[in-house]
Amino acid sequence: MALATARRPVFKVKPATFTPRYGVSFFNNDYSFQRVRPNSTSVLTKTTRSPEAKPTISPLSALPTTVLLRSLLVATISSKPYLLLPSLSILSFLCKPRRSLLLNVDRNPILHGFLKSTFYKQFCAGETHDEVKTTIRQFKNMGFQGAIMTYAKEVVFDHRTKAQHGLGIMQNQDQDVAGSVFCAHIEAWRKGTVETVELLGKDDYLAVKLTGAGPNVTEAFTAGELPPPQMLDALDEICTKCKDRGVRIIVDAESHHFLSGILRVTLELMRKYNRDGYASVYNTYQAYLKSTPVTLGRHLAASSEEGFTLGLKLVRGAYIATDDRSLIHDTKQDTDDAYNSIAQGALRQEIGEFGRKNGRPFPSVNLFLASHNKASVLAAHQLHQQRMEVKLPTVPVGYAQLHGMSDEVSFSLLQLKGSGGDPKVYKCSTWGGLGECLAYLLRRAIENRDAVSRTGDEYRALKAEVGRRLRSLISFST
Ligand SMILES: Cc1cc2nc3c(=O)[nH]c(=O)nc-3n(C[C@H](O)[C@H](O)[C@H](O)COP(=O)(O)OP(=O)(O)OC[C@H]3O[C@@H](n4cnc5c(N)ncnc54)[C@H](O)[C@@H]3O)c2cc1C
Questions:
Q1: Whole-prediction pTM value?
Q2: Could you tell me if the CB of 477 is within 6 A of ligand 1?
């Protein structure tokens, strides 16, 4: 990847009615940026309704009371530094391997029971198949289109300490089987992932963290290479199984250290499995990376020239605490601008030279916006609706928030659901044993610590909903 030469994208704006403060698009590799003027008017205003204008009851009223109370407990801890910081230290301590019986979350029943009924249930789908199936059913009953499910194994590379953390990285457990090396880590990952596929159905997504397959895979990714043949076979098996069940696959973006290898293998999978006019496989693009416009441009070119659908899942990026900071946009605002630029560019079918007048044709793209940023997702939904209503070209789009986070954003989107079935909203969850999920829980807690204003908003919204239910209970009983 030409990281060193990646030029900072600057964006040019098309008028848009609702927010975001920035509407943006790419122009070749030479980007120019202009902010949307607050009073700019949309060419489409007459035919559309602002999503915010729709009168609604509290979005959180859809939340079952037990979930609401647990969410309030977690939001209370997350929004108060004097509660969150000690909780983070405890979680981080428990994450360390080889804990004594007393401190082993899988072996100490009291510790297990407490963590399971609080943090684990808030953010994770279950330890057993039945628990996971129940969680998915609950998502669908609440109006979500489906679930995005991950098996909780991954490796995180800390750029500062140059150390890898996670399961399956202690040592190689390779065996020689009939002349070829058989890696037990890849096999364990394959089994866990196949089990996950079997829990999913049409409308659900499988999300995979490829580093969870252990050292042989992470070594290849570090070198920017494809993983070993055993892993490629496992991926083929998983893609075929998913295709048969109508389940789509999202390959998660991970630590930058592994990213070039992950991008390489995902592009191969998209080439092979996205040939039926839709994306079976999605790659994840991290908007916070300065290099992402170049990466995306390369993938759009491949998709346009070779005729496969590009699965474009867009996130801001979750590894800011461990990745090399110089690779990431200098400010949050730059990351926001980059995110909105790609999301809106895809919805307008205009990214860089693709889709532009006298440019290259815009390829087939399926978009997935994974974000808790309400302004970004509402702006994207409005733009999508506007374009659908006046029959302007656009791309299919889905939205996702993480299980246990930003329910207010999820339910606000669900309240906008129209007769066409849009917006399609998903909850993304992780399953696995409590011990396996601790690193994931720790990352969620750190994310909450870093999103102070959002966690504060969430806490106030949840508290208001609890208050509303208490008041209606009192007025009902009097
Ligand atoms: C369904 C789902 C799937 C996800 N999958 C992945 C994945 O595969 N890979 C992955 O990396 N992440 C993933 N994430 C996490 C995501 O990348 C973000 O960390 C998280 O969602 C917060 O970003 P946001 O869009 O919700 O918005 P916000 O909360 O508005 O943005 C916070 C984000 O902005 C960026 N940021 C914050 N401060 C700065 C700064 N000073 N300079 C530059 N940028 C800054 C960071 O990316 C931070 O996470 C996923 C999130 C969701 C909801």
A1: 0.84
A2: no
